[in-house]
Task: structure prediction
Amino acid sequence: MSDFILTCCTPTDLPDGWIEKHNIPEVPFHVLIDGRDYLEDHGKTIPYKVFYDMLRKGTLPTTSQPSVAQYIEFFEPLVKEGKKILHLAFSSGISGAYNCACLARKQLLEKYPDMQLHIVDSLAACGGYGLFVMSVCQLRDDGCSYEDAIEWAENNRLKVHHWFYSFDLTHFYRGGRISKTSQIFGTLLQICPLMNVSNVGKLVIREKYRGRKKVLLEIFNKMKTFADGGVSYSGKCIINHSDCPEDALELASMIEEAFPNLDGKVIVEPIGMLIGSHTGPGTIALFFYGDERVD
Result:
């Protein structure tokens, strides 16, 4: 075991209990629903199915990152113990969490000038963020040094591929990502946008396909094209979904058949409240390691 503490934020969308089992302290994001502030807690307070049913009935959550004060409160006990801390932050292209964590670090340095707290902008989200956390956790467990773990994280964060599609455009319209006209005609024509996360950590629409089966095949082909080693890929793969498990399991089956050297089964888990608040139901997200994202 290495001599540093690995920390992260809550929206990793990993299997229930994985973070706790691997001793990774996490900072919760916030989801405001009907005037009440909920912590993003991996479906413990509001089960995923209940949450997505609420969205279908018209609930419009809002989300926020942890505050600077919250990060200070989180980091300071570890700093006081003299721990080396490596914090993997949620993508700065989607949230202000990285900036808040950096501001907290700056304030703590004034009080603890000798502290060792390094913050990496993961440029990742959802299960891509989770996959990145899993990888650095494995380095920690294998005895990697603090300095080498930092270097690996900085050098490999852009190798995590994120591919998403959605067949329900309601929340993309509500969130201002598409126009009302695009939402109406997209729904009528069964248009599914295929998106990924760019090299600056932002969600970008890359292509559009008509019909769920076609976009499912295309997201599968993206992994065949971009995965490290192609169909010989031997890393982990994660699929997240916003209450559409049948599509997620179909995609997982296709991947497990085409990629015989995968590191274990495809991990299939729900999209948590943070990202789900913006996508709504009907989103499939695929994550794997591949060539470096360049745009």
User: Anything to note?
Assistant: The chain has two domains: 4-157, 159-289. The mean pLDDT is 92.
